[in-house]
Amino acid sequence: MNHLPVLVVVIPVAGAFLISLVDTVRPAFKSTAALLVATAHSTTLVAAAYRGMTGPALLYSVGEWIAPVGISLMVDSFSAFFLLLLAIGHLASALVRIESGDRSEWARKSAALIALFFAALSGITVTADLFNLFIFVELATVCSIGLIARKRHPGSAVAGFVALMAATISGALLLFAVLVLYVATGTVAMPLVAQAAPDLPAHLHGMATAAIIVSFGIKIGLVPMHFWQPRTYHAAGTTVAAILSAFGLKIHVYALLRLLWFPLQAPVVLPGVYSILLVMGMVNILTGHSMAMIERNLVRMLAFSSIAHVGYILLGVAAAGRIGGSAAVYAVAAALFHTGMHTLMKSALFWSGHRLIHLSRSSRIMDLGGIAWRAPGSIIAFSLAALAIIGIPPTGGFASKWFVAMAQQALLPVLVIGAGTVISLVYYGRFFLIATRRDPPDSFPAPHPLSLRPRLQTAVVLALAVAAVMAGTRDVQVRSLLLRAAEGLVDQADFVGPALIGRGR
Amino acid sequence: MNTLFPFALAIPEGIYFSAFLVFLFLGVILFLNILRQKEGRYAFPAAVHVAAGVLAILARDIMTLLVAWEVLAFSAFILIRGTGTARGRRISLRYLVIQVTGGVFFFFAALLHFGETGSLVTGILVPSAQPFMVAAILIKTATMPVHFWLTQAYPSVELSITPLLSVYTTKVGVLTAAQLIWISPAGFPVLAWLGAGTAVGAVILALLQHEARKLLSYHIVSQVGYMVAGIGLAAGFSAMAATAGMFHLVTHTLYKALLLLVAAQAVHHRGHEDLTRMGGLGSRRPLLLLCGIIGAAAISGVPFTSGYASKYLLKEASQAQPLVTYLLYAASVGTGLSFIKFTHLLFFNRANPPSSDPSKTRAPSMVPLVLVAGITVLIGLFPHAVPGVPRRAFFTPSSLLSALLPLAASALLWMVLKKRLTRPATTVGRAGTGAGGVHATDTRAKPFPGKAHAPGTRLRRGARTLHNLGPQAQVLLFLLVLAVTAGLLWPR
After folding, report:
1. CA neighbours within 13 Å on the CB side: how many for A315?
2. Which of A244, A387, B175, B193 has the smallest number of CB atoms closer than 10 Å to its CB?
3. Backbone phi, then psi, for A61, in 5-degree steps?
4. B476 touching A, CB under 8 A?
5. CB contact under 8 A, A405 and B111
6. Domain boundaries along the sequence of chain B
């Protein structure tokens, strides 16, 4: 039996304990331990993703207990794509944090928390069991609250509380949906729920779907459930905000898609839900971009940009659900393309922004005037990632927007995408101009004594930004991967088949 | 699976080959001119700008063309940003936003075209994509009323940058239009009307200008209007119009670069841009005078100059559409008048105030001018030598006469209006002189300069306050969304 699906969860959980242990015994080796854990986890993730992409879906029953009783884990090509994103995420966030000079108590805890957070995200991605999914979502929430509240400034506690409140409602709704499905079908195993879904009473199905949409809508920041997000990212700081936005948010998108398509069978049973998502996507794009345009704080600006980009992903998703059939594969692939691109671009933006904010000791955009000349590597990475996220050809961001727009059946979403491009150009362009101004030459505070030249950090953000830019010209390879992943979501023979075999055994 | 960015390139043929040569030639010359000015920080964006311009004319697929558009816009943005002063920042951001808006319209058009045909090879777009493409082109070619980005940005940059900017952006818009656009709503050449109208309107505005590069910028708008008129007539009204428009692109790009180089020399010599306070350069700088005369004659369409040949071709192509022809004649009269004023104020006007010993100019600074002037003269004398120009008798008595008539009208008008046109800027009521003109522009761009709050301030503040919503209100919102979603999904 191949143990990869369970290893992607076990390794980082064990790793988190290891990091805490090392931190107590030999604090100097904490970063090394964190890097070691991240490397091991990423390797496992890539191996699992490789199996999921190339072969049939990988089914794992914990303790050989099969579906109705035991917990199933599953890696198919769709989850494999998100496992790849997590592999990038865990390794990159460990690398970026190595040079961090922060020695406070919470900062020491955060290495373990990040490992646990990635464990929870991997769990969400591999699980094939609704209750197990709920557990992992809650674990991810706990870790993220710890990460958000770790900073010692007054806003953090409030922001942590607001995030906790949002997460609690979200968790309660998810639990509610799981309970409804359990009561109606008598099982929490996704394949079995999926089998029963078409015969569910329509109002129960609708209620569960609504609860799931709102539950994950809170997590991914659907307008008007996004109010907690900018505040939280701002309080969490750029390092954590990148992890939350670029990776945490994407896994919640994964969970939403998986639940809609698989246990709920929404494209067949409840196609109306995709029209709601389409409208929400457009509202997200316009709200996110316009708020980012009037925002005066860099971190909050990037947070609003995340809200907007969830909208692009939703447009692709909604198009897929509304088309149905084999054409849906292309639309899902487009949504996944934008998901992957946004992961690269937004992590590069946040982490390069981290350096700029660190240097000027302020995240207000007006305080960042001329900061570019202090950190040329960071501003280059920031500008490249910004070009991609604005959607300038031939970057990956342009390609992903192009395919999302191609998937649309109406003109209005396409026009919204175009408007988003122009608005995002305004705020990224303005930030670039302010950051590269030359008029106030020596008005910065003295540089922070610690971590003066984070070469590794700069290298990581440059690599992420260049990957985001290059993905556009390598779109054939990227798309064949994405189409394979999208098939995993849309053609569920892959997922259902082995699950039923497991049941019959 | 085809790649989205095939980067299909080919050396173009016919008149496009001439445009390619001009882009390459001016690119090299103006790039070296920038390097010579010891403006090291402009070297990279300028090189990228030239490369993007050349890429645009080599592109054989729509995506590559779009890439060239955007690279042109971003490199120009860096060039316009200049030293990063507050004013440069504002103008450059406005420039970039309007250019990328054009790019977004291009994106819509490409998307619709690809959706219907499944191909991205350069060619006339499908009808549903045409309106978007026209919107993109109108922005890129600075057709009125979206010309303001050009007339704001070009005069505000360093002296050596303006000629480079003038070569590519608008011209790439024209050649894109020539390759992709075929539109005649309800059988009318609307695009040609817009182009010809711009040609006249921009000339009228140019006549009101007193700053050297501002005046020339309005003439770019006007001359590109000629080209747009040519492209607009190509849609079934005249077989030759697109070629004529492209030929005008070739000639105009050369002589406009020449005029801007002349203006740069004069401004450098004098230290300010105000034409009414220049004067007297004719006797001190005979070579500059010669180049200036060649450029002015070419843009006015004096026979045996390059501008004459291309305008003759354009007017012949527009014969089926008398409205366009008349508008182009009117624009010719205005252009002639404006350049009589330009050369008069620059070279022949009595120096005002009399300049003391002018700074010595080194001979190398005149090399680019002489080269470009030489090419302009050669094209004017031998228009057939330009690849892709149709065989026509350019110098028949009737065509010479039709070119001389508007010039005679210009001369006549000049005699009547000379006082009015050459009046110093201060007496016209414009407080600005030299750098002061800059402020005049700004006041016009912002109707209420003294007003502390922009109109959207209250809205912005409201939106920011809203995003500090407390936890209780957020919980209520969550439940509200839940209720609405459940209501929408409830079975009926």
Report:
1. 34
2. B193
3. -105, 120
4. no
5. yes
6. 1-183, 188-355+362-424
